[in-house]
Specification:
9 helices, 2 domains, Rossmann fold, alpha/beta, two-stranded antiparallel sheet, about 220 residues
Length: about 220
């Protein structure tokens, strides 16, 4: 069976505002991160903490980041879908893919429990055939193992699958797994993601079903 695997943050949903709010909640300077830091948010909690500490002008080490990270996760867990929104047309495209016989799955570097919580809060978890998080396996993207698991658990074939993502990590995952990648252009980097040389650029979700049919023909 053909399968389309989706990244979550920055691909299916804009989670940046809630991620940044969680980081600000555990930084000593308060709201030092803002909407312009969305790209950093999509690179994870530790990336936001490093930027926040640097912006505060204070000396910090990775030990400070490690100590604050669980606090950030707890803050995020408590307000995980306050501002988060699915990108326009995302779920409509997923439903079209399913009607056309594709399996659909998620492979994210968000911790599994948080990803499950978010998807259920958004009311879309049951739409997807499988979900692999950052800690589901001992490795995470761009290692190909989580991607392969996301395909196989959904009932798909890796050789007839593709990844939809938004970052260099997703592009590298596709190379490692030997599958085509479509990178969305409606995230913080816009069309700048073209430098990662994906198989395709996705400007709007309405185009995804036809794109998937072409890439997996």
């Amino acid at each position: 069976m053909r399968c389309v695997v989706f990244d979550l943050d920055g691909t299916l949903a804009d989670t940046s505002a809630d991620l940044l709010a969680a980081a600000n909640a555990c930084l000593p300077g308060g709201a030092v991160l803002g909407p312009g830091d969305a790209l950093t948010a999509f690179h994870g909690g530790r990336a936001m903490l490093r930027l926040g500490y640097t912006r505060l002008g204070r000396d910090w080490t990775e030990a400070d980041v490690d100590a604050a990270y669980p606090v950030l996760l707890e803050a995020y867990r408590g307000a995980i879908a306050v501002h988060t929104q699915l990108y326009p047309g995302a779920m409509e495209a997923v439903e079209v893919l399913k009607r056309q016989g594709f399996a659909v799955s998620i492979c994210t570097n968000k911790p599994e429990a948080l990803a499950e919580t978010l998807l259920r809060a958004l009311g879309v978890r049951e739409v997807f055939d499988a979900m692999i998080g950052a800690d589901t396996l001992p490795v995470r993207k761009p290692d190909p193992a989580p991607y392969r698991a996301a395909v196989e658990l959904a009932g798909g074939l890796v050789t007839r699958s593709m990844l939809v993502g938004d970052t260099e990590t997703d592009a590298k995952t596709g190379v490692a797994a030997g599958v085509p990648v479509a990178l969305v252009t409606f995230g913080p980097e816009g069309a700048g993601v073209s430098r990662f040389q994906p198989a395709a650029l996705l400007d709007r979700y309405e185009d995804l079903p036809a794109m998937a049919a072409r890439l997996l023909a």
